[in-house]
Amino acid sequence: MYTIVLIAENTNMKKTTKILLIIFILILIPTIILSRDVFLSLVPNENGFNFVSSPKSIAGLILIGLSMIFSIILYAKFLTRLSLNKLIFFSSVPIIIIYGFMLFLLAYLSNLNNEYANFIKKILNITEESGYNTILWAVLISIVFLIILYCNLVVICRPVNKIEHVISRLGDGKVKEDKLNIGGGKQFQTIEHSLIKINNNYKEKDNTLKNLNYLDKKILPKPIYKFLGRESVTILERDKKVKKVGVLASIKISNTSFNNITLEENFKIINAYMNSIAPLIKKSGGFIDKYIGEGIIAIFSKPDSAIDCSRNIIRVVRKKNNNKINDNISVEIALHYGDFMLGVTDEEEKVPTIISNLNIINKIANITKYMKSSLVFSKSILDNLSLNYHIEYRCLGFFKEEDKDIYVYEDLSCYSKNMTFKLLKNKNIFEKGVMYYNNRDYDKSLLYFQEILKSLPEDNASYIYYNKTKEKLSLKS
């Protein structure tokens, strides 16, 4: 529709120009014929010129005025159809020609000797004795020329200034007008049309985000919105997926006392603990991605926040255990920092969820359960902690994932102070035992774990490694 209107306007413009051109030619011919009569009707005297009117001179004067008006209109139409560089050139040409013509007349005025020239010399006070007046008039004409030329360029470049202003506003995404008016001629119509399209695209994106209305409907909680950022939310809406970097947390709650308890009662107990954990995750800037059986997968933006939240969860679970003697709830938390893919899987809700492989975090979770630990994390967590973040840990070993060694560590601060002290004391011995186990030097590995269990028999990880080492040795023999 826009293209049809534009073509129609251009067609009408051409017809109008043709009509004006025909009228101008019809006026110009008699104007040239009668211009001599107009010139002769101007008779100089001591005070100026007397106009000796006659029918021909009056008609010629009117025609000269009309031809000047039509020539200006036609020339203006010609200029508006030019590109900017040609517009600057052709709009300056008449000014330069007039300026050059006036300087030429001024220079040769002293050589002319007729009644018109003598009258002009008298007005300008140009004589052979005062020749410097010619220079002064030339300077004045040059100043006027520069002023007119500057004003001409200012008028021509006004649309350029508007474009610069509009583009800066579009860069900030703050243009609210339905139409952007650049002005100028044909050379700026394409630019104006393109800027209007860009502005409309901005508005469509803003309207899309408003229509999603994530926060108002509580479909997309604030932590998720903050984690994704505005641009990522737009990508999710368009492409249904986006790659992000963050901490994946597997948090599992299990009840180890099933005596005289039904599945429904067990579900209520686990659910009560989950209701206590969810606010802690939100408070730490994380959000729950999905519920899996008796566990959840949560996402954090920073490893510091993930570990702080994990410690708080462990603390709350233990406190609830102490308050309710019948409950024997254990919490197992696994953390991994890395790339993962978020995508929209529900067309109605448009809630982003993890759609990439969870193999690594699941394997760390299995290690956490197997070692009977509370908090286990990968080396990527350790590498991305803040420099001043204090953490006591020990290496539990590694596993392979896509030909990469994923080292895992146990947070020792999750134990009691006395137990943490003993574990730290035996840290070097434990890690040497793990190293020899991984190198399949089971004899040396067994000696290190035996040494730990003599002084610390309640160390679950050492006990498990001790049994695994004995099992390996028995297979060798």
Structure description:
With 477 residues, this protein is α+β, with helices and mostly antiparallel strands. It has four domains: 2-164, no CATH class; 165-211; 215-414, Alpha-Beta Plaits; 416-477, Serine Threonine Protein Phosphatase 5, Tetratricopeptide repeat (Alpha Horseshoe), CATH 1.25.40. The chain is built from 17 helices and ten strands. The chain has helices spanning 2-40, 55-80, 84-108, 115-124, 132-156, 158-172, 189-212, 214-217, 222-239, 263-283, 303-323, 359-370, 379-383, 417-425, 427-438, 442-455, 460-476; strands at 42-44, 49-51, 241-255, 287-292, 295-300, 329-344, 352-354, 375-378, 393-401, 404-411. The strands form two sheets. Strands 3, 4, 5, 6, 7, 8, 9 and 10 form an eight-stranded mixed β-sheet that branches. β6 and β7 (352-354) form a beta hairpin. α16 (442-455) runs antiparallel to α17. The model is unreliable at 1-12 and 214-218 (pLDDT under 50).
Low-confidence stretches: 1-12, 214-218
The CATH homologous superfamily of the largest domain: Nucleotide cyclase, GGDEF domain
Tell me the series of helices and strands, N- to C-terminal: HEEHHHHHHHHEHEEHEEHEHEEHHHH
User: How does the major sheet shape up?
Assistant: 8 strands, mixed
Radius of gyration over C-alpha positions, nearest whole angstrom: 45 Å
Helix/strand structural class:
alpha+beta
| CATH class descriptor of the largest domain | Alpha Beta
* Shape by Cα distribution: rod-shaped
Number of strands: 10
Tell me, rounded to a whole number, the average pLDDT: 79
